[in-house]
Fold this sequence. Notes:
With 258 residues, the chain is mainly α. The protein has helices at residues 8-23, 26-48, 60-63, 65-91, 94-99, 104-130, 141-165, 169-185, 200-204, 208-221, 228-252, and strands at residues 54-55, 58-59. The protein has one domain (8-252).
Amino acid sequence: MSVGAFNGHGVWAIYKFEMARALRTIWQSVATPVITTSLYFIVFGGAIGSRMQQVGGVDYGSFIVPGLIMLTLLTQSIANASIGIYFPKFTGTIYELLSAPVSALETVIGFVGAAATKSLVIGLIILGTSTLFVDLHVDHPAAMIAFLLLTALTFSMFGFIIGIWADGFEQLNIVPALLVTPLTFLGGAFYSIDMLPEPWRTVSLFNPVVYLVSGFRWSFFGQGDVSIGVSLGFIGALLLLCLGAITWIFRTGYRLKP
């Protein structure tokens, strides 16, 4: 990605446009995660929690909070960023953006920044909603904020890549629906992988979402399925991988230029 004089006005224009699009559906954006979170607590916290009181010394209702937030953060980050860049491709306005005095880096900052902001807001809404159902404490607030930011940025970039790759609206939903959501449910979002017998516990370690959920849960309760260092290393490596892919896309013009 080319680097020159930073065009803050261009970045702000993209960011403001994307945020305005979200604000037009603000009630839907807020009501949906609140209702969904409430249903999860009713189903998982009530039905399962009544039979499984604690996991690793943590009340089950509190235990599933990091998994709920991570599930929403992953799906919302991908969805917000992918539709944000795909829509200009669909309408043809992407060529106006490419010819504008805005660099590739500034374009990515605008789109990814807006998508990450929207995802973070929804994640915080879910966190606030969770406190209505369970007693929740955060042992390491700085780590929690770091994981929120890194995850939102990384998967917003991942969604940006999907939006460029997709040829239709159907393809925008393939990765979140068939890959990310199942991996999250199988990644210890609602249980600890230590509860699994071998060889399934070892198999679970090949699920990348395990490291995200585990690290985020550690920030709440000081415990996770894998070490905090491994979790941070994984999210950092994934961030660099996405950044490298986006750099390649703009250098080659992959699905951006005819």
